[in-house]
Each structure stands twice: as structure tokens, then as C-alpha cells.
Amino acid sequence: MSRWEPNGRGRLEQAALELYVERGYEQTTVAEIAKRAGLTERTFFRHFADKREVLFGGAEALQELLVSRLAEAPASAAPIDAVAAALDPLGAHFRALREPARLRQSVIAANTELQERELIKLASLAAALAGALRGRGVGEPAASLAAEAGVAVFRVAFETWIGGNGERDLSEIARESLAELRSVTAGT
Amino acid sequence: MSRWEPNGRGRLEQAALELYVERGYEQTTVAEIAKRAGLTERTFFRHFADKREVLFGGAEALQELLVSRLAEAPASAAPIDAVAAALDPLGAHFRALREPARLRQSVIAANTELQERELIKLASLAAALAGALRGRGVGEPAASLAAEAGVAVFRVAFETWIGGNGERDLSEIARESLAELRSVTAGT
């Protein structure tokens, strides 16, 4: 069947986002998402476990990518710099996706269940990055703290980027946020 | 009725924790919790919205306490130090509660739904602390970063404390974790 459904996954994601914005997340059914995408409910459930997961489709692949990038950072890099280097290319990844990312954040912000899912994905990312740091020989609690701090920096930068006018690059904002964290933790 | 139910809330919390450890969170019903506590289901629902909330009963009061402590920190304190000062008395608060805290963490760790609830409570705490920092004149993103970093430090310290042998004080571990974060973010 798949040759009749080019990019079915992407179409479902886009249809879901549109409907969540138009009608609200809770009011939207899987049947409506599938219909908007021109696909069947069965196809939806081949791609996503439920209507919540359709907003988090890329999370696992993204996490794997970031962890492998962290493993590739120079051996001499300090833990927080290795985390920052791993997260940096996200700026380029999201560059053309600011509007869908902004819409997605607005849907998530309006629903506790979605906020919880977002938070557990971020916690999972931080844990995976901490594991990758331990694999580089970083001890605990330094590995967990560097990973948590790196993810917090990125989250704050992402919100700034989403809330701004789009003129500044996400990577640039993230680098500034890291500098700000350094200043904040230095107690200045 | 309340004079027949001394500390009903605490008895329900203890009964729930015991049952979640013995039988698992998902296998335990509100009826069983109420019975173990010697109370009725109706009393349970007067205190808690659902069997998930019974594990998070103190979160709001704790958050208010920490926010008011942050407001009381010396005006000269740097943001991260004000956050650390606000969180520091948690060590004394939890000192006699290490075993129930350890059991509670083991129940939460075994269930995604509970992990999500825990994460949103911590995110809410970080947001409240960031708001209190803004009230002290700290700008963004410094306020959010200091609050997120402070909560991350405390979380990591809490896990270390729970996982240890209980000889070291939580506050002491938290102070060490903050020193470790300073070192990690300094890139050393």
C-alpha cells in the first residue's frame, strides 16, 4: 500500500497540527486527522500509537542523532561544551521549521497531558546525553548536571527563538544562553 | 466528621505508598487505599483528585514555601545563590523522610504516567522560582536559567541522597552538586 501513501507520516503530522490549532487537541479525533491527510485510521495507527504521539514523531530519531554527535565531540571538550556541540546543529535543523514549531508549542502549552509528554521526552534526552558523557569517561554527578544544564539552555533558547521575530538564528540564541548560564552559575 | 479522621490525609498517603510498593501502582484501587487507611473512598476524594495525586500531595505547599524563601534571600545574592538558599532547607525537611522518599521514587520510576506528573511538578517549581527571580529584578533568560539549573542541581542531589546509605545530609550533597555544576559550566 505504501506507494499510494507518499510521505504518509509527514502528511499525518501536518494534518494533526492543523486540526489541533483549528479545533483544539482534545476536540480532534484520529479519524479527522486521517481524513484531513487523505489516509485511513489504520494507516495513522501504523505510524503513531495515539494522537498524542503524532506531535512527538521525531523525538527518538533526534535523540539518537544528538547522542551520536555527542560521542563524536573532540575528546578534549569539556562536558558542557560537548553537550553544546551536540545540540548546536539543531539550529540549522529547525531553521525552516519555525512556524510549525511555534504552532506545535502553542498546542502543547494549552494541554497538561502534552506538556507532560514533552517533559518526559526532554528528560529522556537529558538522561541519554548523560549516558553518552559517562561513555566519554565523565563521572557523576558531573555527567547528569552537564546534560541537564545543556538541555535547559536549549529549552530556554528554543522558547526565546519561538517567541521572537525569527530574525536571529536558534543556534546563536543557544550560544548566548549558554554564556548566560555560565555567568549565572558563576554567581555574577 | 473530621474529628473521627485524625490526619486522614497523611494516613491516605501512607496507605497508598504501602500498597503501591506491595502490589504496584496500576494494580491498586482507591477503594483499597481508603480501606487500608480505615477511611472511605469519599474521604479519599475529598483530599485527592485521583490515585496519582496522592503521591504529590505536598507539592503545592512546598512550592509556595520555596518561592517565599526565595523572595526573602538577601538582595545582594546572585540568582543561583538565591535559588540555592531557597532550596537548602529541604535537606532538613526530608531528613527523617528518607525511607518514604526512597519508596516513593521507586514507585514513580516504575510508571511513565507518574514520571510525567513528577516532571511537570518540577517544571512548575522551576517556572515559579524563575518568576520569583524576575520579581527580584533578574532579567530573562538569566531568571529561567538560574531556576532550571537550581532545580536540576536539587534533583541530581536528591537522587544521589536516595541512592546512598543515608549517612550524608541532603543539603550537603546539594551544595556539592551546585559546586560541581559551577565547575561543569565553567568548562573545566
Written description of the protein model:
2 copies of one chain form a homodimer. The first copy, chain A, has 188 residues and is an all-alpha fold. Chain A folds into 2 domains: 2-54, Homeodomain-like (Arc Repressor Mutant, subunit A, Orthogonal Bundle), CATH 1.10.10.60; 58-185, Orthogonal Bundle (Tetracycline Repressor, domain 2), CATH 1.10.357.10. Chain A is 71% helix and 0% strand. The first copy, chain A, is built from 10 helices and no strands. In chain A, helix 4 (59-72) crosses helix 5 (79-87) and helix 9 (142-163) packs across helix 10 (170-185). The first copy, chain A, is elongated and about 50 Å long. Chain A starts with 7 loop residues before the first helix and ends with a helix. The mean pLDDT of chain A is 90.
Overall mean confidence score, pLDDT of chain A: 90
* Number of discrete domains of chain A: 2
The helix/strand order of chain A is: HHHHHHHHHH
Which radius of gyration of chain A do the C-alpha atoms yield?
18 Å
User: DSSP helix count of chain A?
Assistant: 10
Beta-strand content bin of chain A: under 5%
CATH superfamily of the largest domain in chain A: Tetracycline Repressor, domain 2
How far apart the termini of chain A lie comes to: 61 Å
Give the oligomeric state. Answer: homodimer
Class inferred from helices and paired strands of chain A: mainly alpha
The CATH architecture term of the largest domain in chain A is Orthogonal Bundle
Q: What is the strand tally of chain A?
A: 0
